[in-house]
Structure prediction request, 540 residues.
Amino acid sequence: MSTDHSGTVGSTGVLIVGAGPAGLVLAVELARRGVRYRLVERDALPFAGARGKGLQPRTQELFEQLGVGERVRAHGGPYPAIRAYQGGQVVWEGRMDEPREPTPDVPYPNAWMLPQWRTGEILRERLAELGGTVGFGTALVSFSQDAGAVTAVLRHPDGTEERLRADYLVGADGGRSTVRRALGTGFAGETREEQRMVLADVRAEGVDREYWHTWPNSESGPSAFPLALCPLAGTDTFQLFQPLATDAEVPEITLPYLQQMLDHAAGPGRVRLTEVIWSSLFRANIRMAERFREGRVFLVGDAAHVHSPAGGQGLNTSVQDAWNLGWKLAAVASGAPAALLDSYQDERLPVAARVLGISTALHDKGFAGEEDAHRRDDPELHQLNLGYRDSALSRELRAAPGPVRAGDRAPDAPGTAPDGTPVRLFELFTGVQPVLLGFGPRAARLAAELAGPRLRAVAVLDPGQPVPAGASGFADTDGHAARAYQAGDALLLVRPDGYLGLATDTGDTGDTGDVDDVDDVDDKAADQVRDYLGTITGQS
Prediction:
């Protein structure tokens, strides 16, 4: 791409403004689906702090699908136990959430610590592998939209400006979103100026990295939010966290200032800070956009909702927004009906509102000084049970649905491929196509008949049962898939983002013994799959 932008009018499929985790996830998803895009970031350099450091289980599953799961595991680590001190003595020890063992349907049951800067680094590396780049130092000056496209003006680091025509624009540019403000979209909520916290990534001596160290007797803030030093997994640094009294004056956040706070909380000379890597003064900001879409312009992540850090939901909800929107933009670019994009706001706005309520309640507990404010064992925080049952894209058509229904997350399960090698359902979901699971021989044959360039069929069978031509074989060797889905003899269509879109019975339900009636059931199921496929791909 030329660096002389003066007077140029470029074009792209999707212009993404903001290269934080949400913008990067969206770019990776579009890149792996072959969609033209541009990703620009106003700042000249990547974000250098650890601000959002916790990846919830559902986000870890998403990262596996994007091809970065192993890197996330290699560079992160589990959350450590918490120790509280008084006068240099340990007076309490516990955890935010008791560790859980992986299960066949939930491979990542625990939150995983990965500093935000490292998450960004991993996603940029993955984007580069797919041939993509980030346009750092490139600001969105203005934009307008018409029936056919969005016209944006970008200012590059050298001061030149470029006019760019994009089919769609996505604002992933944070809580102070230029895109949201230009749209005039309301950002309802509140900023609690009296609830401030100092955050800093630091290096320290005199403290081990086995625990999350806290000093509850600090007079700077409520007892439930003590001064804390949390070792950041995969690094040699700590995150320092200190709430501030309502009337406290905050000078420049320097090494001496942070050392003074730490000495006051822990006692002089016990812990020595040696370097400040990054710092910020956080104000409790709890807001959500009134809408996530205006014509050809979308909002994702902090541009659409901002959270308290309590519960570790902000970054996770942000990347889930991008994950939801990415496959839909790609599908429309490949011929799916444009109405598919309506489902982005319909699905994500209610989820964001629900999660914002959860994180705000935890935040309020902390500032009220409740003893259990540190707990993070609410299953909803893991985001595994957040789904889209009420979405127009969720079609539950079975006579007797099981516990996993259309709109729910599709569980994982281990099994074997036809050649006997181990395989997981999640591995079969990693492509860019929707996946049609056929449970039982009859459903498997029907799934194979429906497979094509826009649909992958997976035959979920007992060991030894033949795999029909046209389907990938999954032998449910220990019955884990059958137990997780309890689908009976059915077709389950898994959307490209890993949620069940359609669930329908086949002729193996046992409702009738008449061959013609059984065939009618299968014909009806096939028509339902074709109709749904037309909705999400444009081709039946």
Summary: The first strand starts at residue 9 and ends at 17.
